[in-house]
């Protein structure tokens, strides 16, 4: 038995075949089957402290995916008991602090979903300290680096208004550091041999982080290579969680048909915990093709999902579908629901709420161009814009958006010169307005100059992006600008 295998089966913490299979089933959202295996393990090895860790992981995913407050409240009492079981285990094992840290981190993320920020901050602090200590004690224990990689990315992207908290807690980390740690985990063949569960977990985390925190083409290219390798494609096809990670990335990077293929062929049925957000993503992919069938998926989402996130966004998309059919009253009905239903925590929902306060609906040409662009159908998007003519949009917002949409299409199709001209014009015209077009143009100019090796110009545009005052998609844009400045230090 190798050193890695010793860690799998260390006293009190036995990641044996039952537990490894249960871990896989949990990551595939087949919770009932996982629980049956854990019951068998409890009967034969009731002192195995991996069991409470995996049970907590299952409950964490239930909370995060369902976003149901009743589920959160009913499961929160379990944390204390499970931590007590883990803490009573063998402190000489690398699993001892690791499992405690993971339980604390999972509950911190769950609490953030429900606004319990103070307790979440304390739990994240505890998790961070436990992982740092465990890394000191067991520097070759790979799971440490997956968990720390996630934390380092989050620490490196803390919004300015919360910097005081990370400073007070002495958190240290950067987006680059976290991405590097996760890449190392995924690429190291020894990790896959000794800790096979890290393959799915690492792929999920790397997809999530690349999508939300990195705008670097090389990170995207690396992720695409991972998602499309034969062994990972097989892994993704079995797991709704990985289908979510891969399709969300594809949808945000102009690979709409790949996302739609994954979503429509995903595993379904009573064996899988319901993941209604995948209906929202399928609707989004259909809408990018201007397919009116998107309506069915958004309706399934709003009818079945009991959480508050993406509800406003879904109703806005239902309104757009009506607008594209020239049904003005249908558009107004759905935009009224945007005002009344769902939460305001996410950028997309806040934007939907803001748009609902505007009396006039969006310009149909710009809306079509935006949706087609988001799907990666760049020639069709360009045709929509050019066929309308530059003088078509009437309002200040529409004029700025027209130039911005042109810039985005030129950028994606490799016409960097035209992209720079249109981004610069958008930045100049839009910097005094509260729209996101100018800020994202500054971000994209920063990325263009960073890629060409002009670091000084890149810094200038990243700083410009962060200096602008606007109230649309601010979190996601500023996170990427901060990550750019961090890379150029």
Layout: helices, strands, pairs:
Blueprint: H1 3-8, H2 17-27, H3 31-44, H4 50-66, H5 69-75, H6 78-87, H7 94-113, H8 117-137, H9 143-156, H10 163-168, H11 175-187, H12 189-194, H13 197-213, H14 217-227, H15 230-238, H16 240-251, H17 256-264, H18 277-288, H19 294-304, H20 311-324, H21 328-340, H22 347-356, H23 364-375, H24 378-388, H25 396-412, H26 416-430, H27 437-451, H28 455-467, H29 474-487
Brief rundown of the structure:
This protein is mostly helical. It has helices spanning 3-8, 17-27, 31-44, 50-66, 69-75, 78-87, 94-113, 117-137, 143-156, 163-168, 175-187, 189-194, 197-213, 217-227, 230-238, 240-251, 256-264, 277-288, 294-304, 311-324, 328-340, 347-356, 364-375, 378-388, 396-412, 416-430, 437-451, 455-467, 474-487. Helix 17 packs across helix 18 and helix 28 runs antiparallel to helix 29.
């Amino acid at each position: 038995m190798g050193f890695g295998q010793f860690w799998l089966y260390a006293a009190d913490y036995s990641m044996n075949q039952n537990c490894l299979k249960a871990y896989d089933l949990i990551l595939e959202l087949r919770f009932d089957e996982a629980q049956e295996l854990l019951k068998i393990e409890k009967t034969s090895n009731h002192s195995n402290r991996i069991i409470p860790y995996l049970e907590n992981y299952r409950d964490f995913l239930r909370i995060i995916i369902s976003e149901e407050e009743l589920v959160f409240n009913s499961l929160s009492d379990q944390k204390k008991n499970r931590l007590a079981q883990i803490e009573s285990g063998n402190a000489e094992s690398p699993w001892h602090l690791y499992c405690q840290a993971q339980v604390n981190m999972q509950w911190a993320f769950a609490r953030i979903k429900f606004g319990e920020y103070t307790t979440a901050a304390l739990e994240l602090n505890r998790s961070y300290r436990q992982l740092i200590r465990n890394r000191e004690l067991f520097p070759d224990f790979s799971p440490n680096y997956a968990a720390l990689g996630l934390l380092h990315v989050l620490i490196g992207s803390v919004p300015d208004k919360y910097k005081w908290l990370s400073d007070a807690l002495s958190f240290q980390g950067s987006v680059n550091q976290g991405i590097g740690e996760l890449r190392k985990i995924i690429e190291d063949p020894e990790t896959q041999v000794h800790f096979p569960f890290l393959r799915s977990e690492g792929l999920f985390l790397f997809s999530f982080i690349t999508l939300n925190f990195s705008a670097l083409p090389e990170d995207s290219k690396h992720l695409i290579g991972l998602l499309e390798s034969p062994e990972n494609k097989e892994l993704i096809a079995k797991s709704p969680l990985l289908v979510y990670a891969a399709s969300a990335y594809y949808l945000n990077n102009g690979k709409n048909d790949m996302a739609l293929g994954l979503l429509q062929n995903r595993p379904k049925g009573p064996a899988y915990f319901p993941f209604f957000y995948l209906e929202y993503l399928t609707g989004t992919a259909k809408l990018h093709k201007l397919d009116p069938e998107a309506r069915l998926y958004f309706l399934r989402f709003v009818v079945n999902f009991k959480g508050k996130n993406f509800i406003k966004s879904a109703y806005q998309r239902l309104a757009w579908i009506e607008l594209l059919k020239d049904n003005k009253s249908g558009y107004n009905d759905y935009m009224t629901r945007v005002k009344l239903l769902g939460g305001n925590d996410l950028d997309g929902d806040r934007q939907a709420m803001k748009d609902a306060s505007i009396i006039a609906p969006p310009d149909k040409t710009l809306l079509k161009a935006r949706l087609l662009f988001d799907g990666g159908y760049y020639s069709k998007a360009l045709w929509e814009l050019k066929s309308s003519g530059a003088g078509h949009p009437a309002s200040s917002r529409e004029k700025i958006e027209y130039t911005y949409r042109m810039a985005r299409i030129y950028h994606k199709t490799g016409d960097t010169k035209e992209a720079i001209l249109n981004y610069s014009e958008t930045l100049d015209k839009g910097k005094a307005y509260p729209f996101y077009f100018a800020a994202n143009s500054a971000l994209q100019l920063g990325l263009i100059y960073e890629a060409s090796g002009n670091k000084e110009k890149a810094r200038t545009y990243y700083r410009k992006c962060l200096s602008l005052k606007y109230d649309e998609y601010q979190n996601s844009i500023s996170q990427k600008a901060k990550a750019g400045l961090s890379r150029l230090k």
